[in-house]
User: Fold this.
Amino acid sequence: MIEGFDSRYWDGRLPVGYAGKFKFWIGKATEADYFANCIAPWQNDKALSLGMHTGAFHFHRQASQPTNAARLYHHFLKPMALNMRFPILDCEDQRATPGMFLASHIWASVQAIEQKFGLPCMIYTARWWWDSHVFFPANHPIYTRPLWESDPPPETKDPGHFGQAKITQYALDLKPTGFNATIDLDRADEAWYMENVMP
Assistant:
């Protein structure tokens, strides 16, 4: 497994003893169709300077227009030197109303993002949210997309009908000594990582 972390407010510094521990960092880029994280490009540059691979996700909001959200996300990432060029859609909006409309909105968002990037969209979610908010049949094409599972131990079933998770978040909201903000710890499948992050 390949070790990495994600954090929204990380200041781009690794404390003594962490150099080389993490191979990748993933941060929040955009949300809905109106918000861009102004520190994400700077965080990305810092992570790259520390020898890490980088990625950035878009946070899905039900109260947004999928095409405009995809346009914002794609435009914001264009100048960033990401190793993970594939898009990532974060699906954990606790303001969302569960049901078929939410499911159709997420699928429309995935399609809009993929049209802009020309690449499959990774889905970041956890069983506690996915299985109680959206209802896709087992053969729905969304389940062919790579999964970043955000449900740390104790182990539960994977959400929905995705295949084996490509990235697994195994610890949440840690604040190790020397970090300015909380971080989540992640492990990526090595074979998938070598093919999709380090071609």
Remarks:
- The first strand starts at residue 2 and ends at 6.
- The beta strands are 2-6, 24-31, 35-36, 53-59, 88-90, 122-125, 147-149, 167-174, 183-188.
- The domain at 2-196 is CATH 3.20.20.80 (TIM Barrel).
